[in-house]
Design goal:
This protein has about 325 residues and is of the alpha/beta class. It has one domain: TIM Barrel. The protein is built from eleven helices and ten strands. It has an eight-stranded parallel beta barrel with strand order 1-4-5-6-7-8-9-10, surrounded by eight helices. β5, α4 and β6 form a beta-alpha-beta unit. The protein starts with 17 loop residues before the first helix and ends with a helix. Bound molecules: ligand PBG. The site of ligand PBG has 9 residues, from loops.
Length: about 325
């Protein structure tokens, strides 16, 4: 009777104890690599819960102060601000109004925590247009790329003047990085950095976000956001943005696009970030509420996977909570 050969190679050896596993871990989570997206709504006195994102709120100009102070205290690396205006129009006027909600919120947040973390702003028109698209429309109702670039240039100057240190270009217009860089440099704002949402896919996982910003969009964004099936094109977009002067490039959503993230990380000579979007958040929260999943372990695993695929930093709605867990040593 022959017995099975004794294994010569035993990878299990390094999994023997928690201390050993910790020592050989390839991917570590650090609060400094986390960015918290934050919604600020015009005309409210207190925070308003977002039903499709349990635990996330639309902040008032007052309540946002506590949220960013908490994030800074937990060691979070940055916050990304989104505005929810009371009034919208066809060109998104509130976006370039220094007294528009996003710009006011930016001043408040920069004042509160501008030295402790990086204050970032969403540079896109969708929250401000009455039709809900990320740009202005031409007479036929199509999103007009080059006319939109003019609006983005104006937005960049107002956001930088309001105290944004890193502009998040999320509109997916061709040439947006070059246009914004040119506008900033032309106004002496050479130090204001650009985060390009380079490979942003037309995703169903933005669903809860559209509730969060009370989006008026009818239809979809498929004429400007990437087709979910296209991997090579995601890399191409990132390379174009780096060429146009992006300081950081991003892949979004994160969890369903880890291959694109890995490709971009391998090719990029600037930092690569990923955005774990609202739908990714909502799915784990919903499953956890049913008791179908261990919330904390699922959150940590989802973000660890994104980092393992190549993200240097991750935008996640769990940023502050996760930062606290990491500090407690609970990785
Ligand atoms: C556009 C923008 C979107 C998100 C971030 N920036 C929405 C969209 O493209 O429809 C989605 C973020 C999320 O789902 O968490 N301003």
């Amino acid at each position: 009777m022959s017995s099975a050969p004794v294994p010569r190679l035993r990878p299990r050896r390094l999994r023997e104890s928690p201390a050993l596993r910790r020592l050989v871990s390839e991917t570590r989570l650090d609060p400094a690599d986390l960015v918290l997206p934050i919604f600020v709504r015009e005309g409210v006195d207190e925070a308003v819960p977002i039903p499709s994102m349990p635990g996330v709120v639309q902040h008032s100009l007052e309540s946002v102060k506590g949220a960013v102070t908490d994030a800074a205290a937990a060691g979070v690396g940055g916050v990304m601000l989104f505005g929810v205006p009371e009034v919208r129009d066809d060109v998104g006027s509130a976006a370039t109004d220094p007294d528009g909600i996003l710009n006011v919120a930016t001043r408040v947040v920069a004042d509160e925590v501008g030295d402790a973390l990086v204050v970032q702003t969403d540079l896109c028109l969708d929250e401000f247009t009455d039709h809900g698209h990320c740009g202005v429309l031409d007479p036929l109702g199509r999103v007009d790329n080059d006319a939109t670039l003019e609006r983005y240039r104006e937005m960049a100057l107002v956001q930088a003047a309001s105290g944004s240190q890193l502009l998040g270009l999320s509109g997916m217009m061709d040439g947006q990085v070059a246009a914004v860089r040119d506008a900033l440099d032309g106004s002496g704002l050479t130090h204001t950095a650009i985060l390009a949402y380079s490979a942003k896919y037309a995703s169903a996982f933005y669903g809860p976000f559209r509730d969060a910003v009370e989006s008026t969009l009818e239809g979809d964004r498929r004429t400007y956001q990437l087709d979910p099936g296209n991997r090579r094109e995601g890399l191409r977009e990132a390379i174009i943005d780096i060429d146009e002067g992006a300081d950081i490039v991003m892949v979004k959503p994160a969890g369903s696009y880890l291959d694109v993230l890995s490709d971009v990380a391998a090719a990029s000579d600037v930092p690569v970030w990923a955005y774990q979007v609202s739908g990714e958040y909502a799915m784990i929260e919903a499953a956890a509420m049913h008791g179908w999943i261990d919330r904390r372990r699922a959150v940590i695993e989802s973000i660890r996977g994104i980092k393992r695929a190549g993200a240097d930093a991750v935008l996640t709605y769990w940023a502050t909570e996760l930062a606290r867990w990491i500090r407690e040593g609970a990785e």
